[in-house]
Amino acid sequence: MTLWTSAEAAAATGGRAQRDWQATGVSIDTRTIQPGDLFVALAAARDGHDFVAQALYKGASAALVSRIPEGLTPDAPLLVVPDVLRALEDLGRAGRARTQARVIAITGSVGKTSTKDMARVALTGQGNIHAAEASYNNHWGVPLTLARMPADTDFAIIEIGMNHPGEIAPLSRMARPHVAMITTVAAAHLEAFGALGGIAHEKGAIFEGLQPVGHAIIPEDLSVTQILRDCADRAGAVVVGFGEHGMARPLRTQLTEGTLACRARITGDTVDFTLTTTGRHFAMNAVGVLAALSAAGADLPAAAAALANWQPPAGRGAVEDVAGIRLIDDAYNANPTSLAAGLETLVGLKGARYVAILGDMLELGSEEFAMHRALADDPAMARVDLVHAAGPRMKHLYDALPASRRGVWTESAADLASRVNELVAPGDVVLVKGSKSSRISMVVQALRARAAQEKG
């Protein structure tokens, strides 16, 4: 199916098409490009113009460029624009404008991607669904997602993230959602915001892009909930709170081995759903998702039933059996709130011993050492048998634990991964978690490599 013609893309961006072409997709990466894609030559770590010839060789229908790369023939299928990123934004706006889809935007300090995926799965069977890939939630990820959206989309789920003040509002205005959901507000990126209130104001900016009489789905029971409500009120939104005391709230959660059976009240309706996870925080996110989908006009009972097919994404709490241990791979990111949720997931599984392998939590500001140390007092941490840690920040947690529960501490994740045989034993349930830049995922890779070697 044609996504963009050269004439449509030129009209959207104000660019000049060298020749006629038709694109069936949009790509920014030659490693994953598909035949028929429009290749967008963004300048990031590398200048995308250096890869235009490769993209065309791999079957790209055309390339979006700001200059004609050396070595291309005069009739090469190019769309020439003054600025590639600006043109991608224009293409995204045009993609959003031409569809009648109900759009749901999701942000939050924790759980954006898993919640977006949860919403996508819950909408199965309810028309044509379009959702952001991976964690495409930044200044290029949001317009790319919109540019990839087919005109006949029925529901779209857009993930919006931030690292610094002022990033969310422009992306929300671009997406123009009918429903905007905030998963939670937690101590993440504190270096850029200074305090939790600053993060809340930035998250609340997602409501600035809402369509008239749009819905704001906000977490109750937070110290900053009122800030979020104020942001929603200024946008003229219909506010639906989710949480223990919200209009959308869990009524019952029953934990069995590997699953959560839940009953929830969603703005007047009672529904049952099952999640293939033991993390209760996922159940609360599911309540928020159901509230958002109901507000967007989806079939609520069907969405609740479809949640049984959702699985936590790789690196974000997925549970797998690896050479005699149960591994919770939660190594994609971390802050105090998400780490506490990870620990709760850990001790919710059955095993001979609970082992936490933790890397530094980053971007927490001046109180980062105290925040690491405070995890020693987390209720779930009291049930953890052994903690291995990597990094200078996590050393503060390590030192705060009783000596009997201290495992191995190393300066880096690479050092910890090299000692993988000392870290776990058959029958263990193991959580691996830390900020992505801590590289604690190296331990996950080492555990899998050890398992493959034993199998081979």
Automatic annotation (TrEMBL):
The Mur ligase C-terminal domain, residue ranges: 319-435
Pfam families, alphabetized: Mur_ligase (PF01225), Mur_ligase_C (PF02875), Mur_ligase_M (PF08245)
Keywords assigned: ATP-binding, Cell cycle, Cell division, Cell shape, Cell wall biogenesis/degradation, Cytoplasm, Ligase, Nucleotide-binding, Peptidoglycan synthesis
A molecular function GO annotation: UDP-N-acetylmuramoyl-tripeptide-D-alanyl-D-alanine ligase activity
Ranges where the Mur ligase central domain occurs: 106-292
Main location: cytoplasm
All copies of domain Mur ligase N-terminal catalytic, residue ranges: 24-91
Binding locations of ATP: 108-114
Domain of life: Bacteria
The name this protein goes by in its record: UDP-N-acetylmuramoyl-tripeptide--D-alanyl-D-alanine ligase
Native source species: Paracoccus rhizosphaerae
